[in-house]
Amino acid sequence: MSDYRRRKILLIEDDPRDVKWLTGLLKMERINAVLAVDDVDTALKLCSKHHIDCILLDLGLPGVRGMDFMRMLKSIPGYTAAPVIMLTGQEVEITAAEAMKLGTRHYMSKSFINQEKLLRVVQEVTSTNKVVRKKEVNLSKLEEHNQRLLQKLAEIDARLSQTEGRLEAVSNALSKAPGGDIAQLDELKSA
After folding, report:
1. What residue intervals traverse the membrane (predicted)?
2. Any residues with CB less than 8 A from the CB of 148 and at least 6 apart, and which?
């Protein structure tokens, strides 16, 4: 079984006919982990609670539009590089360009979607998303490690400052001591 078939796909579509059609195309390829919702609020809640590998997003949702969803999605940890395929009944190049600027991975006109194209794009997005998420996890680990190193560096710097202060005090005391007597040096060390 192909790896992309085990991925969780979220379909955000308000037209029940399109939901049935798109889930049918995916299920024909034995992709069964398809969650279908018809509003942005539910979709955002699902994204914040579950690891979604690919989002099929209708651009023309009532209320909050697909573009607004993209902006909101980026605020959820793990979705900075959104695994979104924008679906639309419109064929407007400006909309496609705006969607891509917001991080949409693909933009598909519903009138040109068939099973082969949809599956190819889903497979590509889920594969890319897997790499992006791994990269984000590794980056997060590096940032945590960097913070620990910075903290240790600050601790070492503080200890060096204390040691430098003590050495300066000893040096001043020795320079004022008549003849630098060993007994006086021992007395300074114990102080």
Report:
1. none
2. none
Q: What is the domain partition of the chain in residue ranges? A: 3-137, 143-190
Q: What is the pLDDT of residues 134-152, one digit of tens each?
A: 777 777 788 888 999 999 9
Contact 11, 35 (CB under 8 A): yes
Give the length of the chain. 191
> Which residue, chain included where needed, has tokens 């590794």?
138
Number of neighbouring beta carbons within 10 Å of residue 74: 13
**What are the residues facing 58 on neighbouring strands?**
87
The answer to whether residues 22 and 35 touch, using CB atoms and an 8 Å cutoff, is no
**Alpha helical stretches, state H, the chain:** 16-28, 40-49, 66-73, 93-101, 115-176, 182-190
CATH architecture of 3-137: 3-Layer(aba) Sandwich (3.40)
What pLDDT, in 10s, does the model give residues 8-49? 889 999 999 999 999 888 888 777 678 889 888 899 999 988
pTM of the model: 0.65
Q: Quick one: tokens of 181?
A: 């007597």
| Concatenated DSSP letters of 27-48 | HHTT---EEEESSHHHHHHHHH
Alpha-carbon distance of 150 to 146, in angstroms, equals: 6
